[in-house]
Amino acid sequence: MIRSLFLFIISLSSLYHPTTLQADIIDDLSSYFKAGNSKEIAKSFASTIELIIVDEEDVYSKAQGEQILRDFFVKHPPVKTSIFHKINTNPNYRFGVIILSTAKETFRVSVTMKKINTGFSITELRIEPAKD
């Protein structure tokens, strides 16, 4: 009886993968974008991040990226978000497309994440006007 219980627990633990917890990181980011929470989004930034916001493109530090994103949210207060596309099957890569609606316009947010150490970090964030 104890042996079968032990084998049952072992079989359940084999279903657990640390990456499973981060599989919904795009969902978390979507809620942070809806709230306009640049601080929480920036927590997932890599040490340097390529930011493409509308027509501005450059590589920034984590702190600079957070400030630029905060400025974007001041100019474009979010109203709602929806996840348009998500890739979370690769153990070293995540990608998501979030549709961000603001009071005046709608944006397409593309998030590219790579596995760094034990977690995923945003290496590229692209915010561009959504095409109808």
UniProtKB/TrEMBL annotation:
Superkingdom in the source lineage: Bacteria
Pfam families: DUF4783
Protein name per UniProt: DUF4783 domain-containing protein
Organism expressing this protein natively: Pedobacter zeae
